[in-house]
Fold this protein.
Amino acid sequence: MRTGSFPQLPVFVAMSAMILLGPAAVVQADPASDRAAARERFELAERQFKQGLFAEALTDYEAGYQLAPLPGFLIDIAHCHRMLGDLRKARAYYRKFILVAPQSPRRSEVQEIVKDLDRAIADGLERPISAADAGGPAAKAAPHTPSARWWLWTAVASAVVGSTVASLAVAEHP
């Protein structure tokens, strides 16, 4: 161990910042292409849902949510679980939607669905239901809209990228 010399300190700081902030920067690397890919997955899932291919639609809705975690995907994922007869998972996703989007105009509708699911689960009913009952694409009145908080996520991504760049700049020019 050397004493009186700290030439490795900037490198340590930069490496620590990259380790802590790197994954977040990588995840937010190209939000526009992620949104476009999520949109493609959503459109494919909507077609599958309308055709009654609920397991396939579920897979694509989940993939779209991973690319762009918009609250509307949670409702669609819940609808698929409902149609597949997994009422407990459906209820969990509906509840997650309520937590993630408490100001949504669809909140009261989703709360009613949760109440219905609670009654069905209490009665021991675990069965697929019709698309109209599920509130699926055939029954939707409101179109999917992008997140109302896009500006927040843009600011978070900018802060992460900015802090990573600043850390690297400090590391290169002590």
